Structure of Thiamine pyrophosphokinase:
Amino acid sequence: MPLPAMTHSSAFLLPASAPSPSNDAATTTYALVVLNQRLPRFAPLLWARARLRLCADGGANRVFDGMPELLPGEDPAEVRARYKPDVIKGDMDSIRPEVKDYYSNLGTNIVDESHDQDTTDLHKCVSFITRDLPVSDKSNLCILVLGALGGRFDHEMGNINVLYRYSSTKIVLLSDDCSIFLLPKTHTHEIHIEKSIEGPHCGLIPIGGPSTSTTTTGLRWNLDNTSMSYGGLVSTSNIVDDDIVTVTSDSDLVWTISLRN
């Protein structure tokens, strides 16, 4: 029996003036999570597209400090008031007291989970979104995560681990340089490439375990029932040639693609 198909698109990074895409991205419900790293240049765009906006602990500092820096022509006080997170959630060991008080006074929901030391702040935020997002149908949910890449390597690996722990939920990790998301083995995958904003460099990484058979189309160097594993072949520095890339694998894979400045 053939596997069901899953589509992916980075159309959420297209300028607001761009035409609406014809694929499933046009009907996607976005939630935004901000972690404790420098905000990428497209943070205001994704903030506007999100239905729910969460800061993970020190991510609130980044919004408080970074949004005025990304919008230098505007009054910083007005920018801070406009970009108010709906929820701040996490251990509360990184957020500055004055930032916490500022957003609390504006009505942000502060959720202290310092009692839970077994999960990361991103895990806590994803759990909150998948449980409490006020939409009846979460099948079109996509969680965009800013600040998941860069900084400490163990934090990066913990964030990638969240992709595996929530493999049935679309989660995209974003930095100024690239995007990363999981391709679960339970589906075939059709990745719509937005060439104005992403590529050409890409990679397929079997982080969760070896793949004995991966097949692709749309890449400069396609895989044909290829085995991949750490200690063996890993598909890095590949090139996107077509507008659609397809991937079928017997293992969960991480897909990554470069973002254009």
Notes: The CA atoms of residues 41 and 70 lie 7 Å apart. The longest helix spans residues 153-165.
